[in-house]
Amino acid sequence: MKKIIIPVLVCMLVSCNQSKTSNGTSVFEDAKVENPDELEHVAQELVAPPYLPKYDQVASGNPVVVEVTLTAQEKKIEIAPGVKIWALTFNGSVPGPMIVVHQNDYVQLTLINPSTNTQAHNIDLHAVTGAMGGGDMSLVNPGQQATFRFKATKSGIFVYHCAPGGMMVPLHVTSGMNGAIMVLPREGLTDENGNPVKYDKAFYIAEQDYYVPKDENGNFKEYDTPAAGFSDIADVMKTLQPTHIIFNGITGSLTGKNALKAKVGDKVLFITSQANRDTRIHLIGGHADLLWPGGSFNDKPLTNYESWSVVGGSAVAMMYQFREPGTYAYLNHNLIEAFLFGAVAQIKVEGEWDDNLLKQISKADKIK
Ligand code: CU
Asked: What is the distance between the alpha carbons of residues 277 and 275, in angstroms, rounded to a whole number?
């Protein structure tokens, strides 16, 4: 009898509590309704990934209206030696900048489409509650701008992307027009036991798949305008076989001299998005100490994962505390995509080596 009662009790206390959020309220309960017209407005200065803008991990005071401006930039970039594409971007980087707010803050977003551009653009944020995720309200032709406001009701990390309609949706997304917004719980992150946990630094690493057409000799083609390549790109997209799978838009942007930096003892929040395609991430020589699958901060984090899934159209957060120095690889553990395509980042970690965790007993030598 005891054998049956104990698992049932554990279930009641822990895992069967799925419909409640971490603070005990149902996800179907509406948050207190604020009047955004009476709230303080705060402008957020966005920065290019892998870095995040200035923000507090724990919100102080009432919700605010966070004002952000994104500018659609169509620009030619070299994604690998000799391979030049018309990148469609938010603010000029692939991925676009990370926006950071707290749950129940409002985001007032202005999208600018300069007259020098050639395409209509918009933004659909997965953090939005409401039809089209802001896509309809933000659709702008070259020479236009539009502003809309939404309440960040759900905590977590969410992808945003351009979605101007039809074939242009995957075409703009796989040309670089995607990014992520982090909606932190107002009280900050909590660990697997529900205790507050802070991180020392955060990196935003997005995997990007590109579909670059080739000529009859097998060389990658270059086009004079974005539209000139659309038909050829559509043919490559239909194969579902990317020609490039890389991190942060340009081959080598997070390796070698561009490697990320941390110190032994640092707790690092790694955020990875994939706006179009599934991937699976692994940190060689480390683990996901805390993992928020699907990027949801509303759920208790999982612990000690070796590899984790990032479903296409989502962003996932994991926190790891480095215990040993050295150069770590953070990669797509489809190892073909990591080593033959380049879906890999490096983190150079400084500090003192701990023999107790890992020690060489004898170096490679002749078999005795
Ligand atoms: Cu676009």
From this structure: 6
At the topology level, CATH places domain 201-350 in Immunoglobulin-like (2.60.40)
Q: How far apart are CA 12 and CA 301, in angstroms?
A: 18
- For residue 216, how far is its CA from the centre of ligand 1 (angstroms)? 29
Residue 95 preceded by cis peptide, ω within 30: yes
**Model pLDDT for residues 61-120, shown as the tens digit of each residue:** 999 999 999 999 999 999 999 999 999 999 999 999 999 999 999 999 999 999 999 999
Q: How far is the CA of 270 from the centre of ligand 1 (A)?
A: 26
Q: Is the pLDDT of residue 151 over 80?
A: yes
Domain range annotation of the chain: 39-184, 201-350
Fold agreement (39-184, 201-350): yes
Centroid of ligand 1 to alpha carbon of 301 (angstroms): 34
**Cα of 139 to ligand 1 centre, how many Å?**
9
Residue 14 clears pLDDT 90, i.e. is over it? no
Q: Which CATH number is 39-184's, of 3.10.290.10, 3.30.200.20, 2.60.40.420, 3.40.140.100?
A: 2.60.40.420
Question: How many angstroms does the Cα of residue 183 sit away from the middle of ligand 1?
Answer: 23
Residue, of 6 and 245, whose pLDDT is higher:
245
- The three-class DSSP label of residue 88 is strand
CA of residue 121 to ligand 1 center, whole Å: 4
- CA 77–ligand 1 middle distance (angstroms): 16
Tell how far the Cα of 244 is from the centroid of ligand 1, in angstroms: 20
C-alpha 179 to ligand 1 mean position (Å): 12
Q: Can you tell me the mean pLDDT for 129-153?
A: 97
Cα 84 to Cα 81, 220, 293: the distances in Å are 8, 8, 34
Distance 88 CA to ligand 1 centre (A): 6
CA 140 / ligand 1 centre spacing (Å): 9
CB atoms within 10 A of CB 76: 13
